[in-house]
Amino acid sequence: MIINGMYVKACQSKTILQSAEEANVSLMQHCKDGYCGFCRAKITKGEVSYQIEPIASSHSSEIFPCIAYASNDDIEIIQT
């Protein structure tokens, strides 16, 4: 998957945030529970899934990397 222009190998057993951290790709984060919305990112390609639904509100083009799981490696997200 592509996170802020950097390739990160997607792992279906880890959140996008965990995968990014292992690849030394920095994402803003705070609560890691989908509660605060601080890690909110725009998804420009692909789909994600959640084991638990985020508590923070979002638009349909936004995801929460702290609790989102990549469905496959064909995902692109941007966090601004």
Task: Describe the 3D structure.
The chain is mostly beta strands and 80 residues long. It has one helix and seven strands. It has a five-stranded mixed sheet, with no helix packed on it. Strand 1 (2-3) and strand 2 (6-7) form a beta hairpin. It starts with a strand and ends with a strand. The relative contact order is 0.32.
What is the strand content? 25-35%
Whole-Å distance between the termini?
17 Å
SSE order? EEHEEEEE
Biggest sheet descriptor: 5 strands, mixed
Q: What general outline do the C-alpha atoms trace?
A: globular
Helical content stands at under 10%
Spatially, the strands of the biggest sheet line up as 2-1-7-3-5
User: Rg from C-alpha positions?
Assistant: 11 Å
Mean pLDDT: 94
Parts with pLDDT < 50 across at least 5 consecutive residues: none
State the secondary-structure class.
mainly beta
Count every beta strand, where a strand is a DSSP E run of 2 or more residues: 7
- Number of helical segments? 1
What is the element layout, followed by pairings?
Layout: E1 2-3, E2 6-7, H1 16-22, E3 41-45, E4 48-50, E5 62-63, E6 68-70, E7 76-78
Parallel strand pairs: 1-7
Antiparallel strand pairs: 1-2, 3-5, 3-7, 4-6
What are its keywords?
single chain; 80 residues; mainly beta; 5-stranded mixed sheet; two-stranded antiparallel ribbon; 1 helix; 7 strands; 9% helix; 25% strand; globular
How would you sum up this structure in a few lines?
This protein has one helix spanning 16-22, and strands at residues 2-3, 6-7, 41-45, 48-50, 62-63, 68-70, 76-78.
